Amino acid sequence: MYAAHKAAGGMTSVYRQIGFGCERLFKALVQDNFELTADQVHWSYTAEKKDGTIGTLTLDARIDLAHIGTKPEIRQRVRAWLDRCCQKLEMSAERTAQIKGVVFEVRQGYKSADAGRQNKDLQFGMNAEHQNYLPVLAVISTQVSHTVIRRYRNAKMLVLTGTQRGADVDSTYEFFRSVVGFDLANFFERNSEQMRKRCTSILGQLLTPA
Questions:
Q1: Which stretches does DSSP call E strand in the chain?
Q2: How far is CA 206 from the centre of its chain?
Q3: Are the C-beta atoms of 157 and 127 separated by less than 8 Å?
Q4: What is the number of helices (H) and of strands (E) in the chain?
Q5: Residue 66 Cα to chain centre, angstroms
Q6: Fewest Cβ atoms nearer than 10 Å: which of 14, 35, 90, 195?
């Protein structure tokens, strides 16, 4: 019983750490491939908490067209992708022209339908739009709640999921291939055995009573 209890809590922690790893990997790849500084890839906003204090919420990555202005071919590639995203979200031509970049919230998976999390995501979306950034939820796996995804898309938030099929306005992996210029799917395939061994080792320790 003790081992089972320890393993249950431990597996939740492992899953959370996998999520953190995906966020950091996403940010590092965006920063390196677009040659951005730490400040340029960073984006945050402030919001009032329930107790009346002001908190700062930090998102996982930002791509601002102005920051890649020295590389016109890359800038044009990102601009073309933003235009396709706005078209998918059925934004007007006037609103599309105002979009100056994109801000990402990254998740390993999103099966939860937690209302609090959804409200925070939609709050991020509204704040990003207020600053003329396209809000994007990028999910690394195919573990998604379609009800939640539909709600986000109806709120004009782009959602990328972990499918390896589809366009770069639907698939996280196709976005990396065609826009970032990095084969993220191949990266995971090359390193899958090492990742699997590491997780298996940790879970084995969690299942040991001592």
A1: 44-48, 54-58, 61-64, 101-107, 133-139, 158-160
A2: 29
A3: no
A4: 8, 6
A5: 21
A6: 90
Locus of tokens 């500084």: 37
Whole-angstrom distance, CA of residue 124 vs CA of residue 127: 5
Count CB neighbours of 193 within 10 A.
Answer: 9
- 143-176 b/e (C-beta count within 10 Å ≥ 16 → b): ebeeebbebbeeebbbbbbbeeeeebbbbbbbbb
Helix (H) or strand (E) holding 81: helix 72-88
Sign of CA dihedral 34, 38, 39, 44: positive
Kind of pairing, strands 61-64 and 101-107? antiparallel
d(CA 133, CA 151): 19
- pTM for this entry: 0.85
Contact present, 63 and 37 (Cβ < 8 Å): no
At residue 55, the pLDDT reads 87
Q: Which pair of tokens denotes residue 87?
A: 């078209």
pLDDT tens sequence across 25-58? 999 999 999 999 999 999 999 988 888 888 899 9
The answer on pLDDT for 15 being more than 70 is no
SS (H, E, C) 93-104: HHHHHHCCEEEE
